[in-house]
């Protein structure tokens, strides 16, 4: 080390202006020799004592313990009741209580350092936890007997590329609710969001371990490759959902507020919503001074198809103008 001015002029520096220099994190022995001729890293690098402490903690976190099982069940039940009651605060409480983050970080270290024992142990714990969560949420949905998609549930059914949330238990609880309802749309959307969030966290943690010096890129590239393949596969349905969202928005913008003359009666189209499928289903209110005939609504559907350029089914809700 080349001492700076504050160290060289130690005796001439007023005591109140002295700075503290901590050297515990400096590289030692052979590690110091290897790093001596390299440029300083942007972030503090881990050393031997850090390895030892972190690995002990992560190996313990990768185990399936009774506190882990208990917290997994309790947090899922709390999330399930919060979702059904449409209570954001209860759902947030379940997220705080959930223990899934610890085995995910252990999995990230296992992938980053190609540690097969740590990877397998954390993967086993990650498999047991979600299975318990799904069973708990499914039983709770049967016990409560509510079959209504609340706003909190609906917010976890259509993940897209814009969804960067890291919540784990709430979408998993929604999947369990979907199993209880035997509703494929609820199961698919929420479980996709859970898998997306899980691997986002694992990938971010693995990259962080690499940046902090817990592994080299040569050692981590295999784990990074596996993560990249999984994230790439998840991206496909997310990209499709994102495209669907764009199409729905475009369709709504083309129809919302449109005014037309049908059967010599001025009508205005309001409260437009779209459910995307093999053929989009468009629901909207038709506000007019008098109700149209069945033929009039058929003509309206044809005009809207021509206007939007999309072949869709329309469900009209007549509404008299006040």
TrEMBL record:
Entry keyword annotation includes ATP-binding: no
Keywords from the UniProt entry: Membrane, Transmembrane, Transmembrane helix
Family annotation (Pfam families): DUF389
Transmembrane regions listed in the UniProt entry: 68-85, 91-112, 124-144, 164-184, 191-212, 224-243
InterPro entries linked: DUF389
Source species, domain of life: Bacteria
Record-given protein name: DUF389 domain-containing protein
């Amino acid at each position: 080390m080349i001492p700076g001015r504050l160290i060289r002029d130690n005796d001439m520096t007023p005591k109140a202006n002295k700075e503290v220099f901590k050297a515990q994190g400096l590289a030692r022995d052979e590690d110091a020799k290897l790093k001596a001729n390299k440029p300083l890293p942007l972030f503090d690098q881990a050393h031997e004592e850090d390895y030892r402490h972190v690995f002990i903690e992560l190996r313990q976190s990768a185990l399936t313990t009774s506190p882990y099982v208990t917290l997994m069940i309790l947090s899922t039940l709390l999330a399930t009741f919060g979702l059904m009651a449409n209570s954001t605060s209860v759902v947030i409480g379940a997220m705080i209580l959930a223990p899934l983050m610890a085995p995910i970080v252990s999995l990230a270290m296992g992938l980053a350092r190609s540690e097969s024992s740590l990877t397998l142990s954390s993967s086993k714990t990650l498999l047991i936890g979600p299975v318990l969560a799904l069973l708990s949420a499914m039983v709770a949905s049967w016990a409560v007997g509510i079959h209504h998609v609340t706003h909190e549930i609906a917010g976890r059914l259509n993940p897209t590329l814009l969804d960067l949330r890291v919540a784990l238990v709430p979408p998993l609880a929604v999947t369990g609710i979907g199993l209880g309802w035997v509703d494929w749309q609820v199961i698919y959307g929420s479980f996709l969001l859970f898998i997306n969030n899980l691997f986002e966290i694992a990938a971010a943690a693995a990259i962080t371990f690499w940046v902090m010096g817990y592994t080299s890129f040569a050692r981590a590239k295999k784990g990074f490759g596996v993560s990249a393949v999984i994230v790439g596969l998840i991206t496909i349905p997310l990209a499709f959902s994102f495209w669907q969202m764009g199409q729905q928005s475009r369709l709504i913008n083309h129809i919302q507020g449109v005014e037309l003359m049908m059967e010599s009666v001025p009508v205005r189209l309001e409260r437009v919503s779209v459910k995307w499928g093999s053929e989009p289903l468009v629901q909207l209110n038709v506000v007019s001074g008098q109700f149209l005939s069945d033929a009039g609504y058929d003509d309206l559907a044809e005009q809207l198809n021509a206007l939007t350029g999309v072949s869709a089914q329309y469900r009209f809700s007549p509404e008299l103008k006040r």
